[in-house]
Amino acid sequence: MRSREERLGGMMMESLGPLDVAGVQIPYHFRCPISLELMRDPVTLSTGQTYDRASIESWVATGNTTCPVTRSSLTEFTLIPNHTLRRLIQDWCVAHRSQGVERIPTPKQPADPSLVRHLVAQAVDSGLEVEIRIGVLRRMRALARESEKNRVVMGTHETRSALIELAFGDGDADLGVEAIGVLAGFAMTEGEAAGVAGRAERVARLARWVAEGEAMEVRIAAAAVIEAVAVAGGRVALGAAEGVMEGIVGLVKQKGNTRGVMVGIRALFALCLARENRVRAVAAGAAEAVVERVGEMGMDSERALATVELLCRGEGGREAVMEVGGGDGAGVVRALVRAMAGRAGERAAEHAAGALVALVSGAELLQREAVAAGVVTHLLLMVQGGCSDRARRKAQLLLKILRNAWAPLHQSMANSDDFIQAF
Length: 423
What we know:
Pathway: Protein modification; protein ubiquitination. The protein is mainly alpha-helical.
């Protein structure tokens, strides 16, 4: 039996007949051998074969280590932009513009690795004036913000290590502020996170930045680094540090800065994955801060809902969440049901259902409130739809909890196949 790569290679070679775009046949050498579509950003591998960048990056990302056409092993994965072919494709598009063919844009190339290494060397060079080094860090931050491709090129261990030393070392304070702004764009390894979370003076500096940073950008950058450290394993040490939780919650409470709120909620969620941090988050006012943001974030509410669910599972969290907006929990229940009905997606609905399980269990008034708000319809859709097993289990559990509150109102539907199959 032929391997997957052999079958794909055969399909590509058999499919080199002319395809078309806007009714115009595409020359086969302008088509990506993987997608068979017009190449928008042609790049050449070490084997000499050219592919569209997005297609070959996807091929490699799924674990393939061979060239799709030649099936030769790829000893290195450098993608060299094929500018000549790209210009020929653009000329072909222009020549057929009258027939409805749109010219492909000139892609912006990722940052040159040699340029990144040069910038890092300048940033750590104590022989240069501080103003020059600050300018270098600002250029690095601009490159990182420009594109995900740039962040991939820049996010090496060497770059991160240099930025960590600049941010948390004993050098110029302004250098540290600029370095944390760049570091905020990268994930961390477990070892790097331990190198931050395991040193009290570094954690204290993060707490100071996120709570007292003179500029909002500094507070946001510190929160992003806190999230990166927490995700990589430093959440317990960070959560226990004085000022960290308070600073993050304070950022979430900020109004008028959507990005700051989003970054703050991501950091809060990462911290609350540690059970012991949930009590600290509740004490810092996280319940009110996050619940009030759920209805404001639209498509970005998934992480906020996940945080509400985690808080409800912590000591005192359920009570703190119920106190938001009146104290009886009814307003929160309605907000969670609305979140399930919104366009935030399956994961958001799952977390809303999980939070509702914690809130309405043993509370008949809240159960009736949830039913009156229309939660049953959304739960049945989750059970009957293609959601994950975990989401389906939460929906089924909540339906069981609500059964007594719901059945008297809709007895005929309660006996239906859809309702019965939910249990």
